[in-house]
Amino acid sequence: MSERLYPEKNKVDMLNVLRFIAFMIIFLLHAKAFIPVNWNENCSVAWVLYTPAWAGTWIFFMLSGYGVGAGYYSGKYECSINGVVEFYIKRITSIVPIYWFWVITVAIFVKPEILMPSLEHFGYLVKLLLFNYQEEFYSAEFGLGWYMTTLLRLYLVAPFGYILLRRFVRTKKQTYCALVIIISAGLVARCLMGYHIALTGKGNWSPNIYKPFYFNFDIFFFGLLLNKLKEYKSDMSYIHKKIGRGLSITALLLLILINSRIYYDYAYGISDYLNIYCYIFPSVYIVSVAFYIYYFEIYKDCIQTKLEFKQLKKNFVRIFDYFQKIQYPLYLFHSSILLCLAGAYKETNYLNLCKIFLVPQDKTNFAIGCLYTFSALILSIGWSSIVHNINVSKGVGRIKAYLQKIDYSAVCRNGIRILRQMFPV
After folding, report:
1. What was the pLDDT predicted at 410?
2. Triad 44, 49, 52: Cα angle to 5°
């Protein structure tokens, strides 16, 4: 059944729900670094909120790969010079304006020292603005910039990865074999690098394994190749679909809970199973998210109605579809807002709120941590909505439309012709 024959329904896009889950497990952990009290005091279930931020990043990488693959396998992007450049232009115009706005805003209002005239600070700004930042400096203010560096590099190689996959992966059997090879190669590569670090004592997991784009190839390209399975989907019974969807989301949430417990116990010296999280869980998350995408997206049985206020009133769960619009500025700015909120912290204000909500004395610090986190989330969403509206304004939209209309294959041919005239062989 072709997608255009699916009925229109006022349903939430479950990929946007997954995006929200990924962001929240990043946000909740980052908040713990800024909460100005002993947030887990006298709370036996505090570990549930010590969510695995690294896992949230892996989910985002996989969703990014899946989104790119959806564009290529659906024919939106062509395997030509024009198609590749069009892909790059769309990625650049969607990433660069908000990213540069984030860098400039944080530099002016949060870390003005970086604007002091010196070669060192100039080098910092160049690294940030040109997507060459790996959290080497000012990590509290600009630490999230490394993610954009890694993501942009994955986007850079994405067209060539797709061309290779299209050339060598053509049948259903080859698709499944390729998925197994990709996930196995990623697992082996991380483990070997971890062994090398342990053996030589040189390097560290975060800068040498977690952040480099080449150690995230498996996550990104597994997501990209999942789109190939759309060509082989057959009829699936209603019961099978419901059970599959229920099990996939349950398994993912259970994995996040187990991961939270492992990370919390490590952080507070209870036990040390961090290596499982660092080296094994990336591959486990790939499988878990793949099943989620398989049942909710590949076997999607409807087309969403346009997101409007009247549709939102009928199905409030569609608020997650709006989240997709602000997730990028929300990811970038949330850490800065947490930092600013920590600087403006006044204990008396939070204690008064605890009295209003009748919080027991022994749970005060935990309640303050929750109030601080919730306040930062609301402020982050509000500010990100403003940034999103600026980004989709008419002026920015016209620039994007102009860049996307250019025939880049003709530009390349003319450039080559001019170079041949200037430098005849």
Report:
1. 67
2. 125
